[in-house]
Amino acid sequence: MSETIFDYNQQIENLGLLKNQIKQQQDNYTLRKARANLFFDDNAMIEYLASERFPNDNQGALKYKNIDGELYYENPNGEAVFGGKKYSKEFPNNEAVGFLGDKVVPNLVPFSTFSADVGGGMVGAKRGFEKGQKLSQSFKHPLAKAAVILSSTGIGATLGTTIFGTGARVGREGLIDMFYNAPPEEIAAALQDLETSAKFSLIPFGTGTTGTANLVMKFKGNKDALQYLINLRGSTDETIQEAKRLGFDLTSAQAGRIGSRGQQLQYFLSRQPEITKITQFYDSQAAQISATIREMADSFGSGKTVGDINTRIKDTGVDVLEELTRRRKERATRLYNIIKEAPEGIRVNKVQSVVDSIDSKIAGEVLNSSGKVIRTIEPDPNTVKVLTEFRKTFYDADGALIDDLATLDARRTSSMQKIIKSTQDEGTGDFGLLLGLRDDLTKLMDESEPLYALARRVYDPTKPSLQLVEKSVIGKFGKLMTDKQTSTAMKNLFDPDVSIKSLRNARRVLQTANPELFQDVKKQFILGQLDKFSKLGNLQQGLPGFQKYFLDPKVNKMMKEMLSPEEYTNFYRMNELVGKAFSVPPGGSPTQYLTAEAENLAQEALGTGTNALKLFYATARVPGRILSGQIGDDLVANISAKQRDKYFEAMTEVLLDDPNAAKTLDDVFNYVSTREFGLKQSLIRGGDEGIEAITEPSEKPYTGEQRGDYIQDLEKQIDALSNPQSMNVTPPKPTLAPQQMMSPTILPNEDDREIAMRRQTGIAGLV
User: Fold this and answer.
1) What pLDDT sits at residue 152?
2) 475 Cβ partners below 8 Å, 6+ apart?
3) First CA to last CA across the chain, in angstroms?
């Protein structure tokens, strides 16, 4: 009979579990998981989940177990079997809520706690570092300085973590209190977690130090690079200031002796990818030099403003062009008159071939190179219209084809020119087509009479492009071409291959003809050379060519003859300083020198401070062995790299005359990287969590308050069974079935299971 009642009870219990399971699957999965993740104490979390899943069972937490990090609960319909019992996951991968509801949202509050710990540590580390720098001023030994700064940074980080972390945990426990009465063990677990986090913050990641001293005093008496550059700055300052007065900057290495160590150091620094200041300086310097050259060229000009100079040159060019045109037209007219006065006229052969070409294009014929039609296309109606009008100009009023040279010339320069000009701005291609047809006719006319070809070369009103060329060439210097003498001078002007005597004669003629224009010619020559070399590449590539061109001995002599003594002195001093600017190559391939220089500078950058750090970690090792035992060595190596970069920056600042070049070594070599602190703190804390997960047993039973209550209940029942007469009570009925008493899940402890079995067998079982 008892077995039947037990079976009924088991069935009722199974139905109740199934009902709760269905209810749990339908409830707010994300909210329930988010609430569970608020707890610091695993047992408190299980008790909360048990109160939700088994609300009428005071010992529901005993039905949970943690297997390989996954929380399971007893379920007769479960999919997993442990110790002969079926279990289900408390938080399965719920596809209904997706990745966001299953993984992201439930972990927002724990992540905010982690962020508060690390972020607070970052803030505190920075404050502690700054405080440590001030305190270290009282110590002289570099080891003591390093210890003070590192300790102060660690203490500051710990305080920051404690302050920020406490606030985050108070808020987290407040959220728990809104839906569950957490036990004292939960508060204790939160405090223990904060203590662990604060201990991690003691590790001063991201901190470097070499002690304190003035920049100059640190390297006093040492033959190192930085001291060399500081000394070089003083010896080259006069040259630097002279270049600055002209309008461009020089580094101390550029202003020094060519091939010196300063130039080698500048070249080395320019090759370091992390140092961009020198590359930026080169770009700025090239622009300054270009502006300086233009300014000096302007000073050689007539002294007018840019607008006035252009207007004067334009007016001069117009005058010269009009005079040349008048003279050429006059000469050509005499030649044309000879042609027109020919007794029987001059006949032009093959005019019909030009008309045939027009007809072919009207018909849309496409010809190959031999003139054979290969296909026919539909021509544009506008093109047909224009070609038809152009064709009419080849015939007289009676419809006869014109082949007289003088008549064709009249048509060519009037009606034909008018039609061509009307199509010039339409952009249809008709303009080029008509020009080609007219050129074919012009070629036939030249062949018919050489005198006509000569006349046309002297003056052809249909060739505006020739006039434009004349304007561009003569626009600035046209007035010099008005007589034979100055025309010869222009030909020889600024030609380094001519004799000094010829240059001198040209200069005298030009100065006599128009002194102001001569000044502008000199200006234009220099600017023309600048534009010429600048077009060969960017300014950094073109300016060295400009500078070297004027160093050529022949060019030097030419400029000395053409410029006034003062102009020559100023120009060539500027050119000399420009040469210094480009005495250090901006780039190139790696060399053995660069490798050796890198090693030397890296050793100089370390100094005594990093050696002190090595000694500090060798003796203390701080908590660096927590993760790998070598974190101290890693930190020293990282600080060495940081200090090398800072050392390079310091040399760059001295080279470029940066306003911060006189900063102290505390600013150059002492630093705290909050970003590095946060990153490494995150890594080491994550590593600690990983180690904990690996070292924990695969099966972790519930060990909370409900288990203790259950054990006490068993002990009371055993006591009652051992003295039933004295208590005058009926022995209590066992609360667990025999198979439950033997379950290692409900009673993980072997002694507990033995006590339960003895209780089942009665007084005899205690013997």
Assistant:
1) 83
2) 313, 314, 316, 317
3) 29
Q: Which two tokens stand for residue 498?
A: 């001519």
Identify whether the C-beta of residue 529 lies closer than 8 Å to the C-beta of residue 303: no
Residue 621, CA atoms < 13 Å, CB-side half-sphere: 9
CB atoms within 10 A of CB 353: 11
pLDDT at 292: 93
Residue 463, pLDDT score: 65
Reduced 3-state DSSP string for 661-697: CCCCHHHHHCEECHHHHHHHHHHHHHHHHHHHHHHCC
CA–CA distance, 514 with 312 (Å, rounded to integer):
12
Distance CA 487, CA 505 (A): 12
Residue range 702-720: average pLDDT? 71
Distances (CA, A) of 141 to 164, 211, 606, 738: 35, 8, 16, 75
For every residue of 170-207, DSSP letters joined together read HHHHHHHHTT----HHHHHHHHHHHHHHHHHTTS-TTE
Sign of CA dihedral 464, 468, 473, 477: positive
For residues 40 and 193, is the Cβ–Cβ distance under 8 A? yes
Instruction: Give mean pLDDT, residues 195-216.
Output: 58
Q: pLDDT by residue (tens digit) across 446-473? A: 999 898 888 888 777 666 544 443 443 3
Q: Which residues pair with 347 in a beta bridge?
A: 404
Integer Cα distance of 49 and 62 in angstroms: 11
Rounded CA-CA distance 36/31 in Å is: 9
Q: Which is more confident, 604 or 436?
A: 436
Only one residue has tokens 């060295």, namely 544
User: Helices 631-655 and 277-300, interaxial angle, to 10°?
Assistant: 10
Identify how many contiguous H helices and E strands the chain contains and give both numbers: 35, 9
Give me the sheet containing 85-89, strands edge to edge.
80-82, 85-89, 70-74, 64-67, 699-701
Contacts of 32 (CB under 8 A, 6+ apart): 24, 49, 52
Closest to 39 (Cα-Cα) out of 51, 27, 28:
51
Reported in sequence order, the residue ranges of 309-451 that DSSP labels E, i.e. its strands, are 365-367, 373-376
